[in-house]
Amino acid sequence: MELAGQAALVTGGSRGLGRAIAVALAEAGADVAVNYAQRAEAAEQVCAEIEALGRRALAVQADVGNLAQVEAAVERVLQAFGRLDILVNNAGITRDSLLVRMREEDWDTVLTTNLKSIYNCTKTAARHMMKARSGAIVNISSVVGLGGNPGQANYAAAKAGILGFTKTAAKELAPRQVRVNAVAPGFIMSEMTDALPEEVRQAYLARIPLGRFGKPEEVARAVRFLVSPAASYITGVTLVVDGGLSMAM
Ligand code: NAP
What we know:
Elements: E1 7-10, H1 16-27, E2 31-36, H2 40-52, E3 57-61, H3 67-81, E4 86-89, H4 104-132, E5 135-140, H5 143-147, H6 153-173, E6 178-185, H7 191-194, H8 198-207, H9 216-227, E7 238-241
Helix pairs in contact: 1-2, 1-9, 3-4, 4-6
The structure holds NADP nicotinamide-adenine-dinucleotide phosphate (NAP).
């Protein structure tokens, strides 16, 4: 198993893409800390799945937008596992509305949870990875960060910001053998996309060359690849997992 003996932290691991990523890393042999914001029960269920695979699991509550909470969470992971080799910055939210109607608090909340979180978690985890002279970080962006999307100026700005952050962190951390990459999913079935109106879902579907929505497991496999030794010479890239959607954007 390619991640045997390694320890991972997946933010927003209690549901959706994060849950699938946490389980995929455990299937590859890693012990996994499952971060969540509110749904402790969901996080515990993911931990039970990971433990059923024979790995260690830890549910860690923390608001990823809050640096002090992130530092405390990373400390708990280090105490539990004794190391931190993999960070997947997955937690994210949407607060959609057209720009002219967008409330300031919806701009601030989305930027804090989706972009400042990447700074909080990467900075905190990177200190330990740099000391260890190894590590892999994957930031979950979105095709919306590549092509924009009406009603999502806040989300698109955060997701595009992640791409610039990823390349800069990749350059800064490369001398210490820490790799940093991004994954940009398209339309993936989760609570986030379940909440969209049916006409929006159908409009997306019509534009996806592969003719279907993606599954969380299909994003998780891309993340698993990027953090594995199979990707040992890959840093600073964005892997698009979207059934071809961004070609049509
Ligand atoms: P989701 O089903 O809504 O799950 C969101 C996860 O993030 C939950 O685990 C939630 O924890 C956690 N979370 C939210 N706010 C948090 C905070 N402040 N601190 C810590 N954790 C927090 O979302 P998803 O669809 O799986 O999306 C996961 C990531 O993929 C996001 O970054 C999203 O932007 C990105 N993405 C998704 C799609 C898609 O089509 N679904 C496409 C492109 C990109 P609780 O359970 O405790 O609330």
